[in-house]
């Protein structure tokens, strides 16, 4: 069997990771980075992807060798590790999923031109539809549908990026003054970009749980090198698409004086207009559908992952209270996430920005801690020495921990003072 056919056979967790990452962090932040600050923002995007790579890779490595999730590894290191991760997951559960559904609902309203329908109503419809799909189709449906969605998005982005490059830089406004990256506004944007590029570090356990589901699918379990090959493919695709979005924003908006919306829903609509203006108005439905499908798939993967993570945490924290029927538990997890996040959307819609800011703060500040926890897992006796990361990957891990720690400390200083 060739390497390519082996990759296609094993494709799954890496693709789900790519779909999770190519949500608002790419669709909004990468494009906005290019539009506001130009091509220089490729540096923090590449840096973030490189320095965070080990944290996510360890999720695949640990699970492939031990057949256990990263979360089980946290428990093996000590209950405090597990409680810390449980706290982070709790904050994520009440914020990030609701935000993703709000953005997706906004794209749906724009796509079908139904501004009279309340955003919360569309979000509820999406909650019910996606929740039903996950309960019925589970992991297998996720894997099959995302192969189509990510392929569609990649083609749309490749075509658009090529046309944008061919047309060259948009004419600059004669009164344009390049914004300063190193003032307070620029630093805060940079922190947000690095913090969510390619995605939050706690998603490393999501890949771990998807790997376990993949191994249960009946196919032969891949070797460590094969599993890492599949993950590396998804990770490289994620980084490449981030650069595509950056180029589109830079060449079409940078220096033009165009007012960029701070609202994620409005900006996503602006992005669709960017695509159609470069390819042609006839592509509106195609591009808008691709953007909606991107956010739809991100909602699916995040919804599925948070249900699995919550179950895993509860089973490890309260083993005597948990019933043995995991399938029934998964259904309840999906339904509870629907109820919780719909309540968040309806009750805290005016304060969604503050809730997301809190989630960003917790996720970003604790990112180096989770990175260290993942390193502890793969360097433990759970793994035979031959499967532990080599010195180069360990050095990159420590560099990433230092990098994120410095950013986190500076972020805390800015918030406090």
UniProtKB/TrEMBL annotation:
<feature type="transmembrane region" description="Helical">
    <location>
        <begin position="186"/>
        <end position="212"/>
    </location>
</feature>
<feature type="transmembrane region" description="Helical">
    <location>
        <begin position="40"/>
        <end position="60"/>
    </location>
</feature>
<dbReference type="GO" id="GO:0016020">
    <property type="term" value="C:membrane"/>
</dbReference>
<dbReference type="GO" id="GO:0046873">
    <property type="term" value="F:metal ion transmembrane transporter activity"/>
</dbReference>
<feature type="transmembrane region" description="Helical">
    <location>
        <begin position="281"/>
        <end position="302"/>
    </location>
</feature>
<keyword id="KW-0472">Membrane</keyword>
<feature type="transmembrane region" description="Helical">
    <location>
        <begin position="396"/>
        <end position="416"/>
    </location>
</feature>
<feature type="transmembrane region" description="Helical">
    <location>
        <begin position="329"/>
        <end position="349"/>
    </location>
</feature>
<feature type="transmembrane region" description="Helical">
    <location>
        <begin position="117"/>
        <end position="136"/>
    </location>
</feature>
<dbReference type="Pfam" id="PF01566">
    <property type="entry name" value="Nramp"/>
</dbReference>
<keyword id="KW-0812">Transmembrane</keyword>
<feature type="transmembrane region" description="Helical">
    <location>
        <begin position="81"/>
        <end position="111"/>
    </location>
</feature>
<keyword id="KW-1133">Transmembrane helix</keyword>
<feature type="transmembrane region" description="Helical">
    <location>
        <begin position="148"/>
        <end position="166"/>
    </location>
</feature>
<feature type="transmembrane region" description="Helical">
    <location>
        <begin position="355"/>
        <end position="375"/>
    </location>
</feature>
<dbReference type="InterPro" id="IPR001046">
    <property type="entry name" value="NRAMP_fam"/>
</dbReference>
<protein>
    <submittedName>
        <fullName>Divalent metal cation transporter</fullName>
    </submittedName>
</protein>
<feature type="transmembrane region" description="Helical">
    <location>
        <begin position="233"/>
        <end position="253"/>
    </location>
</feature>
